[in-house]
């Protein structure tokens, strides 16, 4: 009996997640109401509130589910960065490109701070792992978590700006921009070290 309940819950959540992604792409987040969501998902209002506090919580979960479905994971940052972004970063950005209308709304002036915060936290975790693994001196005197948060803010800033561009460059260009944000601190330290020799 519990398995049936779990399937029903999963199906309801999936219906609501699909509804918000479709409606945000069509109308933008501000124009979407809970009434719109329950009508599109074919559930009742009380069911919505059994699962979500508001549309922002639903949107954050819907984005998580879409990223998981697309297998869109940000690659770990290698300790030895070369000049070219990895193909895995390009694949990650393809997810954003394929849902550009949704992400342009999320990152917009009336977007979803909760969804952006979740994304930034994921990037910060990866950045922290990479900094610790690399033993870089690029952030000497700074707590690793602070450095990771700075990198994550930069990456998410580039991502949000890119996705909102009217004449948006291709994902390869965006990957190059993000890779430069990630690799430049280490490159600066190497330049200083080389010039000191």
UniProtKB/TrEMBL annotation:
Domain HTH tetR-type: 10-70
Keyword Isomerase annotated: no
Endpoints of the signal sequence: none
InterPro entries for this protein: Homeodomain-like_sf (IPR009057), HTH-type_TetR-like_transc_reg (IPR050109), HTH_TetR (IPR001647)
UniProt DNA-binding residue ranges: 33-52
Swiss-Prot/TrEMBL keywords: DNA-binding, Transcription, Transcription regulation
Protein name per Swiss-Prot or TrEMBL: TetR/AcrR family transcriptional regulator C-terminal domain-containing protein
Top-level taxonomy: Bacteria, Bacillati, Actinomycetota, Actinomycetes, Propionibacteriales
């Amino acid at each position: 009996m519990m398995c049936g309940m779990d399937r029903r819950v999963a199906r309801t959540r999936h219906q609501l997640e699909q509804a918000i992604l479709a409606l945000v792409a069509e109308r933008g987040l501000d124009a979407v109401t809970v009434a719109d969501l329950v009508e599109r998902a074919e559930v009742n209002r009380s069911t919505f509130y059994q699962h979500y506090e508001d549309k922002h919580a639903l949107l954050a979960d819907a984005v998580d589910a879409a990223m998981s479905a697309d297998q869109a994971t940000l690659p770990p940052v290698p300790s030895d960065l070369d000049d070219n972004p990895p193909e895995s970063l390009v694949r990650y950005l393809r997810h954003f490109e394929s849902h550009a209308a949704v992400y342009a709304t999320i990152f917009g002036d009336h977007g979803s701070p909760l969804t952006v915060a979740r994304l930034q936290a994921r990037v910060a975790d990866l950045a922290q792992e990479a900094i610790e693994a690399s033993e870089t001196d690029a952030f000497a005197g700074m707590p690793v978590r602070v450095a990771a948060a700075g990198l994550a803010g930069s990456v998410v800033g580039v991502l949000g700006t890119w996705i909102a561009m009217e004449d948006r460059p291709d994902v390869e260009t965006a990957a190059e921009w993000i890779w430069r944000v990630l690799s430049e601190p280490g490159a600066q330290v190497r330049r200083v070290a080389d010039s000191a020799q």
